[in-house]
């Protein structure tokens, strides 16, 4: 245990700092919590956490070699991610004030909302090229190449659970009925702010891409 435990503590620290930093996941969970409430936002958080396993799988599969051999693949991945974030941002920028009936919906509508929220969280994190590069670097630099696969999988599962837990906590706080009721009249302005934040993130992805190409 002592051989890998210090390495695990380093992962806990580095991953914790990365997750706590504002980014597209933070913006999407916040936007969902304001618009659709606590439960739906927690489902979004679970989607974000699940996407971590995708990045872990890519890292274990040695996708860094593929990106190095085919930069166009990473560039295309980045463009798709920027377009998706811009799409989500537009939804926030054009948000309307919450009606009095917000939160009262049929079981079918609730199920569709949960499904859409999960997919939103999954795609937001899964398409984030910076998240992919972060995990590739983490597995290449922090984690020993000789580390057993079962230990690497444990690291990956921990990071997925920790990510989901952090954003679920964020969703629980922001999406609380009391918090939302206080913000009901101004919630659409907060959504517009998160929408602008998503546009800024999307723009930065493209600026970095063009800068690297130049």
UniProtKB/TrEMBL annotation:
It is found in: Cell membrane. Pfam families: LysE. Signal peptide: none annotated. Keywords: Cell membrane, Membrane, Transmembrane, Transmembrane helix. Its main location: membrane. The chain crosses the membrane at residues 43-66, 73-93, 127-143, 155-175, 195-213. It is a multi-pass membrane protein. InterPro entries: LeuE-type. This is LysE family translocator. It comes from Corallincola platygyrae. The lineage of its organism: Bacteria, Pseudomonadati, Pseudomonadota, Gammaproteobacteria, Alteromonadales.
